[in-house]
Structure formats: structure tokens, C-alpha cells
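Input for the complex:
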Amino acid sequence: MQPIFEVRNLKRAFGGLAVTNDVSLSMAPGDRVALIGPNGAGKTTFVNLVTGNLAPDSGEVRLNGETVTSIDAIGRVRRGLVRSFQVTRLFLDMTPAEHVALAVLQRDGRSGRLFGNFLAMPDVMDEVGQLLGKLGLRDLMHRKVSEIAYGQQRLLEIAVALALKPKVLLLDEPAAGVPQSDTGRIEQALADLPADLAVLMIEHDMDLVFRFAKRVIVLAAGAIIFDGSPSDVTQDPRVREAYLGSYANASHAA
Amino acid sequence: MSMTTTNDLIAETQGKRRFGASDLIGLGVILALAVVGYFLFPTNLALLTRIIAIALLVLSLDLVTGYCGVATLGHAALFGAGAYAAGIVSAHYGINDPFAMLAFGIAAGAVAGLICGAVILRAHGLPQLVLSIALIHLFHEFANKASSWTGGSDGLSGIAPSALFGLYEFDLWGRTAYVFGVVLLVLVFFVLRLIVRSPFGMLCRAIKEDPIRIRSMGASPKAALMKMYVISGAVAGVGGALNAISTQVVGLDSLSFTMSAESLVMLVLGGTGSLFGALTGTIVFMFFEDVVSAANPFHWLTMVGALLIAVVLFAPKGLYGTAAAFVARRREAK
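Predicted:
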């Protein structure tokens, strides 16, 4: 299958330090990939390079066969590369319905319309109801985001991302900061992601990684040191050395 | 989801989306105040018309500051551009039809909005504020130097608007100008209510909260803010043109830093991010200023200062914002 998302020989250095060092990877539609690595491994820089918030020194990012390296972050989103944030970045004074509606209207090129209210647009409300319903947020759709629980805000982050109908979704620690009691809901939402969507998840919670990912990529000191199945990652000596530590001895094998 | 469910969702939200009760009450209040003002101050309609013109400036400022979070102390540039354009086409080109003068005022305000937006939106926070101050000084100085067009420090005179619809002369008592102003204010208010509730209005509120998040949704904050600046310029242009038509003179004060700063004070006094707040702030400030300066010509500025300190300390959301929050709390408590 033709890759939907490719990174070729991506390099970026700060000062003399190579923070992203010749990283290449490729994803096909429907892939579920987890990107892991110890603190300082260069995950955030990698996400910024890929999303267009940071320019690489060299290398290439391709989306659906098109080279997007010189296209800005907004252009990449419009081409289907969507990210969620590690710390929720929502509009606290707005409602979940407004968040999803704004994403839907933006995706359809209607967010600049000066007249009309989304609450009276059946097609928009249909999508808003569907998406929020699927994530269990329908009853809260008209509450202010500042009034809903953190776990629900994380779910709303996913809803906003999905409303943009991405081809590639970068999830930056989707369960970060969520109380244990609510992670089940997030995992369910991840399991329900569209089958043809390529998902790259950056995550520290190894249980979640093993349950979600079909493929794990390990980044250490800016370079990929492992790219393979979850069952092999804990056995890889370089990974054990660089990252997993005592976790490798645990009985987790997906 | 079936259409029935969507229809249910739409029905649930009917109260929120309609140009509904609160808007009608708002329009009713504006009209009632206009009628009361007309009968209470029949000899001072010029002041009331000026309040309307300034209210249009403050509404315009609310669009970029209250709804989009842009910091500016130079917003009178847009108002002054509208006033001078309406005045110049009448005084120099003999275009005296009030609607044509208004159209030139709107266009000039929009162009000034485009220019100011292009400069101001290049920065954020304090640098943005400094750019806005620089711009208002540049506009002021330009109007001062181009005296053959603007009359410089003497002001632009010779503005002679013809009768409205060929029927209603702009009389000495200012009745026609007042009614013209009230109608313009109601129309602008109606259009702005639609805009702030539109998808574009929602986009601007989101940009105010987090422009980076908006970029990650594929929208360009700068493009949206430029658009809002142009709309804001058009609204300020209406106010400027109204001022030129009603007073038949345009002075450099309409392009001044003082007027920019005062309009911001009025907005904060009423409450930012609400059209009603902008109107409340303008009316309260201008009436207070008029009444207090007449009552005590020596200490009126002290009293204006005291009022502002009291509002900022005890009603930080502004007079309207605080009252609205209080009503909302009472409703929730029930």
C-alpha cells in the first residue's frame, strides 16, 4: 500500500546538538504506531518538525505522496495532518459543541462566514452530535469547557481532531494527566478511531502503548533505535539500555 | 445519527441560536433610550448624536479588542479616517448626499482598518500597543500636514450635507442628525450581533483564547484578524461619517491619541467582549463627563478618574459585564 505519511532523513540540530538525527519512517492508512523514548529523546522536536512548526535542517516530510516540507503548519493541517496536544489546548470559554462545530466549519472552508449560526445548520449539528455522542460528551455539549472534567477535555481534544477528518493523526500523550478511572474511556475512543486513519501516538504509558499500537518506534538521542512489533520491543537490547529499564523485565507483551 | 435526532439537537438549542429575546430586548432598550433622550434633552441632541458616533467607535474597538484580544491605543485612526473622508468629499468635491458621504466614510474606515491591521497585527502584547500608538500619531500628523485637504489644525469646514432623501434638512437643532444616528446605530448593532454569533465570530473568539490552537485546526489567525480589522474599520467609519455629517466640521481631535485612549476606557468601563458593554460604557462615560464637567468645571477630571478606579476595582468585568454575570449567577442559583 502506498504510504500516506513519510519522513525521509529528517535532521535538525540546535547548536551542535543533533536533536533529530536522520529520522526516516513511513506509515500506511490504518497504521497504529506508537512513538516512545526517554525524556530528551527528541519526540517533541520530531512532532514540531513533522507538523511544520519547526523547519528541518535537511530531509523531507511527505503527506499522501506530496512533499510538504516547505508548507507551513496550517497548510499541512489542511492536507490532513492533524495533531492533538499533550497539555489540553481548548478554548475555555467555549462549549464542546462550539469546538467541534468550529473544526467542522474550518475543514469545510466555512469558518469565515459572517452570517448564520452553526446551531441552525443541520449538517454541522449532525456531525457535532455524532462525534460528541460517540465520545460520551453529548450531554455536556453546551457547557463551558472550563466546567467539564479534565478527562472529558482530553476526549474533546480527540473529537476536535477527528472533526477535521485527518488522514494522519498525531496524538501527543492522549491520556496524560487523566485519572486512572477515566483512562478506559480514552482507550475506548482510541480503539474506535476510524480504521483507515493512520495514527502516530506519542505516549509514556507503556500499558496503553502495548494495547494500542501494532508497531512501536523508539527514539533515543534523536535517532530511531527500534522500529518493530510491540512484542519485540522489550527484548531489544538497545531499547532496554536506552529506555525501558526495569520495565523490560515485566511481563507485558502485547 | 438520524435526522430526527439532529432536529432534536437543533430544537434544544433554539433559544441559543435565534436572533432572540435578548437581542430584541437590547434593540428595544436602545430605541427606548433614544426616545427618552430625544424628549429629555431636546436642546442637547448634538451631545446625544456625538454619543452615538462615539458608541460606534467603541463598538468597533470592541470587535478587535473585546472579541479578538488585540491591544490597541490607536483606534481613533479608523474613526478619523471615516470622518475626514466623509468631510472631504463634501467640502472639496461637492458630494453632499449623506448616504454617499456615509459610503465614503465606511470605505475610508475599512482602508484605515486594513492599514492599521497590517501593521498592528505584526506584533503582540506591548509591542502591539506601541505600534498602535505610533500609528495614531502618524495618522494625526498626516492629517495635520495635509492641510489643503483637511484644514490642518483649523479643522475641516465647509461640509454641507444635503437633505436626507431630499426631504429632511440637517437642522440647527440636530433632530435629523439624531434620528439618522439612531437608525445607523440600530442597523450596525443588528449586523454586529449577527457577525459575533456567526462562524467567523466564533473563530475570532477562539483566536482570542489560543491562536496556536487555531493554527493547528488549519485556520490562519492573522487572516481572520485582518478581516475583523476591516469590518471594525467600516464600523468606526460609520461613526466618523456620522460625526462629520452631524457637526459639519472635522477636527484633528477625531484622529487623536486621546480619543483612542478614551474609547478604550469607555469599553473597559462597560465591559469588553460584549456589544451591550460597549454601548453601556460609552453612554455612562459621556454622560458622566458631561454632567460632572458642567457641575464642577475644576474637579471633573478627578471625578472621572475616581469613577474609573471604582469600576476597575469593584466591577472588573465592566458595568454591563458585572451586571450580566450577577444576573447569570442568580439564574443558576434558582
